[in-house]
Amino acid sequence: MNPRGTLVAALTALVLLLSACASIPSTGKVREGRVDVEQGADVGQVAVGPASDAEPDAIVRGFLLAAQAGPTSSTPFSVAKEYLTQTAGTSWRPYARVVVLDGSPQLTVEPVDAEASTATVRASGRILASLDERGVYAEAPAPMPHEVTFELTRTGGQWRISSLDDGLMVPSQVFTSAYHYTRLYFPTPDLQSWVPDVRWFPQQTWRTNAVREVLAGPPEWLGGAVTSVLPEGTSLAIDAVAVGAAGTVEVTLTEQVADATSQELALFRAQLQATLSDSGGHSYRVDLLDATGPLAGSEGVSVPRAPRTLGPALAVRDGRLWRVEGRSLTAAEDLDVDLSGLDPTALATGPQTDPVVVRDGTARIVRVSGGRQTVLLEGPDLVAPSVDRYRAVWSGVPGGALQVVLPSGSRYPVTAPWLEDRTVTSLRVSPDGARLAVVTSGTSGTSVQVAGIVRDAQGVPTSLTDPVTVGASVHGVTQAVWQDEAVLGLLGDDDDGGRTLFLSGVGGLAGVGGAHSREVAGLTGPASVTASVGLATTLALDDDGVLYQRQSAALWPVLAEHVDLVAYPG
């Protein structure tokens, strides 16, 4: 069955199902930490045209500033093109590639005499990241030198840029105000969860860009892990969406939408509403139209949920299992967990603490809930387990294929050719069950990738898609956890060689500090971390068994001591 056929079947099943069922701490030690002060971004830049008789370096500097203002302007790049010759202005493609720099570009001017008719100016900087035409953000492993050459000619007695590379040079402090952090949402094949795909679009046109990219379908790295909603070929009838004063977005679609069912239209409307909502809580009402007028969708269609962690964190202390509740640990005797005779070295649990799984030493993965011990996997140096929303357990030997064990006990290999010649050291399934974060090591060092999980019709994982790289600038990573639906927490090396926690976006981080990975303040020497998606709660455990809970940007009060392991569901 093709993906859209699967979607129609799932929507029909949901409609039938709905028809049938209608109806600051006062205790504990506080650790002192370093506070990182974020710098405010330049907001509302105003582009200024070229001054009369300006020298070549002033022309290039003015062009760079005007171009940076283009994404926020109601007349994008019209002022920037005043610095170009007519031919250069016609051929220049500003969005072909955006390079994000660690500061403003530095200019170098080749000597030119008063009678010269041509000049050369070079702009240089260090790249932190780049952005492609579809809004995909890629972080650089380290700041890399970058230089662009501008050729200028005299036109009517005034210097103008006659030759330049396509693209933009944007300082990181400006980037997050010029571009809108956008999460495109696609449904899982069972329609239970939204899966985000982060993009960055120009502030002035981000809604149109977002709708266009949703209609284009999932990115390659999520292919097979999520599904499209509308019939293939459906696109915007006009290359813009209308935004009304009352917060209504009108989306006019091409004739292919006529083949969509009323359930698909309702789901697509919900997909756009989720995509167009912003971090400030503002949401839009979406009206769908075609050439004949408004398009109505079915009422009562259940829509996917945002991915979130379901259940509390569990901890192992003194050979017993505990729940993390608020700012304390309480014995989890009701879970009927048997840890006798085991040497737990890693802990994992599923939604609502079902199942509970430990790694026994380094060679066995054991399910310990339900009043008995069940060996799920055996092998040398098994990877610490992860449990997905289907309650399947993931692990594997470092140099071999990943393995998934279903609740029934059946085992399946998961193919991922890109893992060949790499050693898996950490893995974590996202709350939506559609993405896997993997830390690997090899001759080139450690790397972190996120891949889509392809499942068969019964929901059994069969393969991983080709991945995207996350946190390329974070080195020595030993663990990755989902800190938010599109953000990973990475344990890596700081500049002094110590262990610390970084936040890395799957597609870049929101915030005024720039979209690249950032170190979390106030935490020193963590041995492991775990986090809850949706609650923004992060726990860290050090080598001495001290458990910390993140309270604010830089405060990590002690929650408990003598703790061996801790894990949120996932």
Automatic annotation (TrEMBL):
Any one Pfam family match given in the protein's UniProt record, by short name: Gmad1
Residue intervals of the Lipoprotein LpqB N-terminal domain: 49-175
Record keywords: Signal
Taxonomy, superkingdom: Bacteria
Domain GerMN: 184-280
Lipoprotein LpqB C-terminal domain segment(s): 319-557
Signal peptide per UniProt: 1-22
Record protein name field: Uncharacterized protein
Originating species: Xylanimonas oleitrophica
